[in-house]
Design brief:
This protein is α/β, with parallel strands linked by helices. Helices cover 21% and strands 27% of the residues.
Length: 258
């Protein structure tokens, strides 16, 4: 199975990125660029081919490329971000994915949808897609996404998000489908059949690299040990400057499998 990841380099206005649920603190742009390069290097070291979306220097949040698209099988659903400042980010992602041969669908007005609000768990019998309804994604966006994904066998479920920016700011899933989250960030953990509490906010965020390996932030060392005790191999990267902007390891790439 091929493994490709879309990424987008941070632009010169990164420090102006939106923050909603945390206080703004200074961002070191040079350090952020170095951390982004380390993140990309970690993907490459794990056998992922990295495809870069062209920079969008006028869009401070463009580095968080995950929010611009939801990929399911051979379909790329181009989002309509909930923050108006971020709507121009999607064009570059669409161009790259079209060039890679993906079928293209879109979220249209009045729908809004950020990719960070979409958590997928795909199995041989189909898949479940949880969509966070909160500040950036609305019911119309969820309904449109469900209509796009239903022909591909996906069941779409809306869940409340009020304590964090995006659903995947609160929860992500391990390779076996267990959802991990830090309880103070999660509106309703009973939504998921299997939920694992983790002791650190950054421990809520993992990227699946293969069936037994996850990528996570160095900001969650206790959760790292917990996951290793469960038999997972953990690759840890420092993304502290992006965490100052409510970013996490999932936001910085779109993982493509085919």
């Amino acid at each position: 199975m091929s493994k490709r990841a879309l990424v987008r380099p941070p632009g010169p206005r990164l420090a102006d990125g939106l923050v909603t649920h945390i206080d703004r603190t200074p961002v070191d742009l040079d350090l952020a660029r170095g951390q982004w390069e380390g993140y990309v290097a970690a993907l490459v070291a794990e056998g992922w081919e990295v495809v870069s979306v062209p920079p969008a220097d006028d869009c401070p949040d463009a580095v968080f490329v995950e929010d611009t698209v939801v990929v399911y099988g051979d379909l790329a659903v181009i989002t309509r971000p909930g923050a108006d400042e971020r709507k121009p980010e999607t064009a570059g992602t669409e161009e790259v994915l079209r060039g890679l041969g993906y079928r293209i669908a879109r979220i249209d007005a009045p729908g809004t949808l950020d990719g960070g609000d979409v958590l997928k768990h795909v199995t041989s019998g189909g898949g479940t897609v949880w969509v966070g309804l909160g500040g950036r994604t609305n019911a119309a966006g969820l309904e449109q996404l469900a209509a796009h994904l239903e022909p591909l066998g996906a069941r779409t479920v809306g869940v409340p998000v009020t304590r964090v920016l995006h659903l995947k700011s609160a929860v992500t899933a391990l390779p076996d489908g267990t959802v991990v989250g830090h309880p103070p960030l999660v509106d309703d953990p009973t939504v998921w059949p299997a939920f694992l509490e983790v002791p650190e906010e950054a421990g809520s965020h993992v990227v699946l690299l293969d069936g037994s390996t996850v990528l996570m932030s160095t900001s969650a060392p206790v959760t790292r040990r917990l996951l290793e005790d469960r038999g997972l191999r953990v690759v840890a990267v420092d993304i502290s400057e992006f965490e100052r902007l409510e970013g996490c390891v999932t936001c910085l790439s779109v993982r493509l499998r085919g």
